[in-house]
Amino acid sequence: MDKRLGERTVRFKNGVYIKGCASIVEKTEEKGPFGEYFDVVMSDDLWEEESWEKTERKMFRTAVDIASAKAGVELKDIRYLLGGDLLNQIISASFSARDLSLPFIGLYGACSTMSESLMIGGMLIDGGFADWVACATSSHFATAERQYRFPLELGTPKTPTSQRTVTGAGACILAESGERNDPKVTMCTAGKVIDFGVKDANNMGAAMAPAAAETLITHFEETDRKPEDYDMIITGDLGTFGSEVLKDLMKDRNIRIDDNYRDCGADIYRGLKDIKCGGSGCGCGAVMLSAYYIRKMMEGEISRILFTATGALLSPTSSQQGESIPSIAHAVAIEREGE
Amino acid sequence: MDKRLGERTVRFKNGVYIKGCASIVEKTEEKGPFGEYFDVVMSDDLWEEESWEKTERKMFRTAVDIASAKAGVELKDIRYLLGGDLLNQIISASFSARDLSLPFIGLYGACSTMSESLMIGGMLIDGGFADWVACATSSHFATAERQYRFPLELGTPKTPTSQRTVTGAGACILAESGERNDPKVTMCTAGKVIDFGVKDANNMGAAMAPAAAETLITHFEETDRKPEDYDMIITGDLGTFGSEVLKDLMKDRNIRIDDNYRDCGADIYRGLKDIKCGGSGCGCGAVMLSAYYIRKMMEGEISRILFTATGALLSPTSSQQGESIPSIAHAVAIEREGE
User: Fold this and answer.
1) Contact between residue A312 and residue A208 where contact means Cβ atoms under 8 Å apart
2) Distance CA A133, CA A102 (A)
3) Domain B184-335's class?
4) Where are the domains of chain B?
5) How far apart are CA B213 and CA B228, in angstroms?
6) For residue A176, what is the nearest residue in chain B, using CA coordinates?
7) Which chain B residues are within 8 Å of A115, Cβ to Cβ?
8) Which of A89, A285, A298, B318 sits most deeply, having the most CB atoms within 10 A of its CB?
9) What per-residue string of b and e applies to B47-58 under the rule 16 or more CB within 10 Å gives b?
10) Nearest chain A alpha carbon to B113
11) What is the pTM of this model?
12) pLDDT tens digits for B64-113?
């Protein structure tokens, strides 16, 4: 228990290097302001598969494949694949693990899964249990809509606070050794499940913002860091409305994050018409982290980020039974030494 | 990476102690041959809640509460709750984590979740990231039937190879320190996702047996142990049919496990009328391990077991789309020193 910095935060001793990342999206994501950064833009939402669920698997698998190639590691040398997705029984991740023939640790943290997998993957490496791990998540607009809301064929109108599930898969390869300038996962603050009683499943940003706030506050307290110690504080998919709620909640605690705070959900579709409160889904934070933020760290433009993906832990059944939306956020500090 | 014994197996260096376990079941499980060992037998399948889903949460939460009390640790001192269940978006585990106010790592490995959580929980302790963790899973006959098969109200007949989802929640508390005679998690072999092409969702034992065989064979190879080095080799819920398939698959590789092999699913309802191929579900292996096997280790009757819970990683959607059933098994060695 020598790696703890408080009740919820751990600090890695040996270094957990991010050696390669990959991102796969569809045309809608390409149209947004980050379009140029994604590794693969699919020709359409089926990508030559016969169902959207199969497409999502192909995206997941391909993201791991490309990230491994970039990291210079063969699949057979990866000790664990950690990941999950939004589909029931996380079939995108499980079927991908089968096809990739990798030892598999299935995770479910809804849209927080990318930071959950980086946190656990980091612990497996820093703890001496693995030299290489792959962390990956995915989501797909069409599979999520028909599972969580309505089949697309119905043309159901959107509420003003709704977010569009990102069609995207992101993967990061972590390694126990690397170069001095590689981005490294250095600290992680685990989330508790927070529930402010929000029941509107079309306003998940508001439900998740308190979880993000609680984790961020805990992180700053336990690490003795301030928001300005990070170049960027990044949440996964609070959306335009939820990210305003987060800023307000932080302000209430006298912590000002406005200057260096970004939300992947609010940013990914910025400027596109007909998209209400931005993007959401496991894939949202995963592709933005993999495509943009890690790349900018590798290029030396930014050197310290706090990636805090948030998840709404509801199910259609729990909503139908009148339950509120419990949420969680895990914070992962990623840092790079200077030149 | 100093804790590996081969490609898939890790050995803990510092000792991961099992300090307390708890199990909660319903009357059907009490009628089986292990009825006397469970901590709580619910009065009925609702246990004063208004829906079976809420009952399952109460079971999950109560199992963690009782296990913590037995371990002599306060909830606030538990660093992580690791676990999951069979319900979509693992709501039993997530809502329980909210009510228990514990940092939460959501896992999904279908019925393999108990060994997945012991494996990851063990790594978090042995890696120096936690002094106490809670590992828990649950399943409930009524919630699983209506989600995966048919609402109970329909009275749908069972196929000959079907298994009954165990109504049960099991929890184990792991700690970084303990007494010399406490059971300890010593080694873990992670599963790959194995798929022999079985498509019959009413015959999951047959689908999962190859995954159990592959993990067991890997474990014996990498640890240089033989089946007879264990007092018991225990699978989670292959059922009476699936466990025969496993013995045959092992025999094909010249490994004989018949003498000390038990399957929790085949055993839990043994002798009960109208239960076809035994029990299944996350809760099955969890309650048998927590109630019986760990207790027998604590009492000194057995001293070395290999707990290998298996999971069928299908979803109703993947089955409807004609997919086969990918499966996984993680093996966890639990040992106790002699008097």
Assistant:
1) yes
2) 10
3) alpha beta
4) 9-175, 184-335
5) 16
6) B1
7) none
8) A285
9) beeebbbbbbbb
10) A106
11) 0.97
12) 999 999 999 999 999 999 999 999 999 999 999 999 999 999 999 999 99
| Residues A48-106: tens digit of each pLDDT | 999 999 999 999 999 999 999 999 999 999 999 999 999 999 999 999 999 999 999 99
Q: Which residues on chain B are in Cβ contact (under 8 Å) with A90?
A: 108, 313
Could you tell me where the DSSP H helices lie in chain A?
27-31, 52-71, 91-100, 113-126, 141-148, 204-223, 239-252, 264-268, 282-288, 294-298, 316-320
- Fold agreement (A13-175, A184-335): yes
A227 DSSP assignment: G
Q: What is the least distance, in Å, from the CA of B190 to any CA of chain A? A: 6
Quick check: B97 and A321 CB within 8 A? no
d(CA A161, CA B168): 39
Residues in chain A closer than 8 A to B318 (CB atoms): 53, 89, 91, 95
Q: Which CATH number fits domain B9-175: 3.30.1330.10, 3.40.1120.10, 3.40.47.40, 2.60.40.2470?
A: 3.40.47.40
Distance from CA of B104 to the nearest CA of A (A): 6
Task: With beta carbons less than 8 A apart as the criterion, state whether B325 and B203 touch.
Answer: no
Structure-token pair, residue B51: 């829906």
Q: State in words which class domain A13-175 has.
A: alpha beta
**Are A195 and B98 a contacting pair at CB < 8 A?**
yes
Q: Is B36 exposed, middle or buried (0-12, 13-18, 19+ CB in 10 A)?
A: exposed
Our CA-based measurement puts residue B301 at a distance from the nearest CA of chain A, in whole angstroms, of: 31
